[in-house]
Amino acid sequence: MNVKERFRKIRKKLGLKQADLGQILKLSQDAISAIETGRNKPTLEVLTVLYNNYEVNIEWLLTGNGKMFMNGIDEDVIEKKQVAVYVPVIGVKVSPDYGMKTEPNSFETSEYLPIAGSLVGNYPNDKLRSIKISSDVMYPSLAIGDLVVFVEGFLPKTDGIYIVNKSGMLNAQRIVFRTDGSILICPDNKKYPQEELSQDKTKMLILVGKVISKIQSTL
Asked: Is 0.70 topped by the overall pTM?
């Protein structure tokens, strides 16, 4: 088996069509076909995304040594779990009350992000949403252009990265829940200050959902 055949095998294991993988890698379907027919080799950017997003063993892809996936993950398990899920990509501009309603939120989308099912766990597909990061507030964890997947309404009140609605603009923020009921907003980018909200002011912060996965930008 050579590089082109191993590349195709990876795509098949992930349950993705050529067009779907092309969207994730920021390549056309023809470019994916060119790799799978041996006309082109996968670039460093392509290898990086495959490793970061799917834990593909790059040594296996290039040489055939080792296993397809890192950490010895069983390929049969991957094949069963990595069925493509299509997640709606919504704009960062929403209604100011988005995330406050108990009924399903309305949103507009013209784009769907195909991702491997194992990246979203057992969360209900109809609650999955994705947005493109437009701020450097969470850099280096999240860069401008990265796509993040979050579960709408999933608010376990455990520390992590959440999608926040601030005056009708969605953004990702690292949230720390304190035992006294207050909330600490902790940007990963140190040029932005931390913000503390006392318990009586936490209602000012609209948490839309918790981030569960990201797709790194190749730009």
From this structure: no
Could you tell me if residue 76 is inside a domain? no
Say if 68 falls within a structural domain. Answer: no
**Closest Cα to residue 161, out of 211, 209, 205?**
211
Domain of residue 48, CATH code: 1.10.260.40
Q: Which of 31, 63, 95 is the last residue of a domain?
A: 63
pLDDT in tens, the chain (219 residues): 899 999 999 988 887 889 888 888 889 999 999 999 999 999 998 998 888 777 888 999 999 988 888 765 545 444 444 567 888 888 876 665 666 654 445 566 768 888 777 677 667 888 899 998 988 999 999 999 888 999 888 788 889 999 998 878 888 999 999 998 899 999 999 999 999 999 888 877 889 899 988 887 654
Write the CATH number for 201: 2.10.109.10
Q: What is the DSSP string of 9-53?
A: HHHHHTT--HHHHHHHHT--HHHHHHHHTTSSPPPHHHHHHHHHH
Element (H, E) at 79: helix 75-81
Number of domains in the chain: 2
Residue 158, judged by CB atoms within 10 A of its CB (0-12, 13-18, 19+), counts as exposed
